[in-house]
């Protein structure tokens, strides 16, 4: 399956649009569902030419499954305020604005990210490991219940070494790991484990954009540090099937989202009352 296949999909318009900041890309699109909120961060190797439009069918399908779904837009490489650290602080600010804009709480919120969005979702869930003054570390940080990484770029140093998308990691951070070691330490999810949130990693073994070894490496590192991490490798599955709600992989993605929400401490709804 190609990107063109994903771009050919159509979705119903979002039910609501909010702005979490003053920048042109500080936009949240929402599809109404249940009391549990899935916050979706799109991929595209952090590049300006790929925006949230390709993730809308996936978001609408999640909402049809009973999740209030929020698509996060952010400044990307090639745009003013994109790259380091603006791309990171944008996503962090979006998540921190959710209680005010959406009414979500830790027990009812899971991050879902695809490809580069998987990197940003994992990084956002791991901000408790960042030092004071690090990017995306405000005084009032919002926690999330779990995070689902779909074919995520989980190891930036390895991604740079593999030259993913002809230098995408280099463009994101502005240089190589040997010259920017402190920056990579702050930006790389695999160097921030463990997370307080459950991390569920889903990856196709036929992915030709982001190798499955990225998720395997992160999973092993998280477990070694005592983290709550799960790995689902899907046989015969490529990169884009994971965000195509018409593909066979979508059932596995839904299972991953349920697994993230089922981490210890989740408050299931009672009767007509929402979990708090």
UniProtKB/TrEMBL annotation:
Keywords: Hydrolase. Residues 36-220 form the BD-FAE-like domain. GO terms for molecular function: hydrolase activity. Gene3D superfamilies: alpha/beta hydrolase. It is an enzyme of class 3 (hydrolase). InterPro entries: AB_hydrolase_fold, BD-FAE-like_dom, GDXG_lipolytic_enzyme. Its EC number is 3.4.-.-. Pfam families: BD-FAE (PF20434). This is Alpha/beta hydrolase family protein. It comes from Amycolatopsis halotolerans.
């Amino acid at each position: 399956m190609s990107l063109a296949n994903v771009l050919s999909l159509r979705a119903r318009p979002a039910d609501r649009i909010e702005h979490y900041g003053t920048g042109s890309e500080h936009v949240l699109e929402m599809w109404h569902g249940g009391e549990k909120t899935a916050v979706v961060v799109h991929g595209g190797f952090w590049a300006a030419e790929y925006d949230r439009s390709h993730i809308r069918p996936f978001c609408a399908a999640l909402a049809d499954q009973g999740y209030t779904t929020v698509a996060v837009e952010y400044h990307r490489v090639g745009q003013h305020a994109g790259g380091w650290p603006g791309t990171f602080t944008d996503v962090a600010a979006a998540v921190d604005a959710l209680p005010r804009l959406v009414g979500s709480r830790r027990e009812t919120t899971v991050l879902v990210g695809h490809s580069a969005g998987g990197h940003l979702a994992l990084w956002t869930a791991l901000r408790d490991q960042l030092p004071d003054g690090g990017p995306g570390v405000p005084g009032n940080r919002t926690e999330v219940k779990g995070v689902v990484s779909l074919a995520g770029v989980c190891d930036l140093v390895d991604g740079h070494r593999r030259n993913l998308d002809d230098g995408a990691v280099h463009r994101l951070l502005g240089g190589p790991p040997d010259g920017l070691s402190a920056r990579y330490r702050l930006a790389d999810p695999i160097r921030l484990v463990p997370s307080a949130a459950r991390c569920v990693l889903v990856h196709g073994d036929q992915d030709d954009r982001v190798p499955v070894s990225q998720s395997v490496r992160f999973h092993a590192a998280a477990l070694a540090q005592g983290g709550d991490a799960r790995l689902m490798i899907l046989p015969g599955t490529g990169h884009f099937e994971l965000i195509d709600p018409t593909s066979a992989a979508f059932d596995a993605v839904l299972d991953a989202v349920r697994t993230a929400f089922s981490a210890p401490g989740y408050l299931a709804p009672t009767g007509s009352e929402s979990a708090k």
